[in-house]
Amino acid sequence: MKVLVTGHEGYIGSVLAPLLLEAGHHVIGLDTRLFRHCDFGEGPAKIPMLEVDLRSVGPDALAGFDAIVHLAGISNDPVGDLAPERTYEINHQASVRLATLAKQARVPRFLFSSSCSLYGASGEAYVQESAALSPVTPYGDSKRLVEQDVTSLADDDFSPVFLRNATAYGASPRLRTDLVVNNLTGIAFLNGEVLLTSDGSAWRPLIHVKDISRAFLACLEAPREVIHNQAFNIGSTDENYKIREVAEIVQGVVPESRVVVGRGATADVRNYRVDCGKFSRAFPDAVPQWTVRRGVEELYDAYLKRGLTNDDFFSRFVRIEQIKHLTAAGRLDAELRWIDAEEGREGYDFR
Length: 351
Prior knowledge:
The structure is a single chain. The protein is α/β, with parallel strands linked by helices. It has a single domain (2-175, 207-240, 271-290, 324-346), classed as Rossmann fold, CATH 3.40.50.720. The chain has 13 helices and 14 strands. It has a 7-stranded parallel sheet with strand order 3-2-1-4-5-7-11, with helices on both faces. Strand 1 (2-6), helix 1 (13-22) and strand 2 (26-31) form a beta-alpha-beta unit.
């Protein structure tokens, strides 16, 4: 299949794109390259790409594709809270526009990277895909709106599928240290403290980035009737954890580390456990293979091997800090677009 992967140089995309290539697909990337100087190790694989802002994609660019895997967007709650209007513009409006253009271009399959964040504050009960959606952040709400609007585009010739990813973790060529497992492991590695900024009581479903990528591959290759206009919780029902439990796993893996609750830590309003049985029944060969403990071990080894520093951990590997840096340096405007049209292509030294 000829597949367009938006955000292919990001945290998930830099793992997913090579997997699709290995599976024999013809992969083209699309990325605005905000994080091109955020490599962890060798960096993403070089594949043919369109260097363009998602909001500026034209209809001609989508002609001839068999599927679009849509990952690009504002990637988490803190960035969404920093610029909620941009979150809705990029994550919601531009995503719906992309799906609409894809349908017009006769692209038959559209895989959307949604999020379990749209469950928001669901509490102790396990939530299935049919549960009421109650996002508590602009990021989560933007995912809800995309699902709502793109669902209505589905017909005999256009099959969207919504992959509601659990919170990701694991090493990636474009590492993020603003994800809870990556963050707790990194701070423990650097400073010996497994630092909780909340009271640790909230539930969160967790999944390795490689398992997310395998789920996308499965949905890409599945018969149409299996995925047509469906939503799937992507994760493992057994891999729901309280944040405090994650901290204790990190403490058990990282030598001479200890759990510390930050001053003024309170309960996180985001609190949800998910049931991932629908995906595991539909795709028994693509169920997650990683556990959080194994992921922490992988991260610790990667941090040690690559000599992770405090400077990198708290700056270029944190999405909101990178965006703030680009804006303060006059390279991004208030709409999060490159001021110099060639900036994303030529780049600069973050440090």
